Amino acid sequence: MYIHVIEVAEEYIGHIESCIKAKHVEPKGKTEDGTKAFAQKEWPNIRVKLEQPPNATRNPSSKDEIKVGLEQVLEKLAYWASCVNEANPACKVRHGWFGWLNARDWFEMVGMHSRHHLRQKAILDEKIAKFSIS
Length: 134
Fold this sequence. Notes:
Structural class: mainly alpha
Largest sheet: 2 strands, antiparallel
Order of helices and strands: HHHEEH
Radius of gyration: 16 Å
Number of strands: 2
Number of helices: 4
Distance between the termini: 18 Å
Helix content: 55-70%
Low-confidence stretches: none
Shape: globular
Strand content: 5-15%
Mean pLDDT: 91
């Protein structure tokens, strides 16, 4: 799960950069689901069917790989944090479910997506504890 969160965060950070550097403005906006998710600042608590199989994410080689990956994501977010407010909000990259998102939206998506998976992990941890599986 952590590798998935890191890889998706890296993808979204790439979209932040694309939006910031873009010259073309996009008049289209978010989908209904996207508008709702951003209003709630939360990824919908439903299972999403991906184009790739969910097991396409590899396992980490070590805990250090996860730690380094998360630290790199945080460093990149810190770098782009000051830029997203200055970016043209009409320059957007399309998300397959949420519609056309600008740099600020993609920045927020990193947290929304990460919290979604941490919520899933907490539910799984609770179920494991309930059945005393270790």
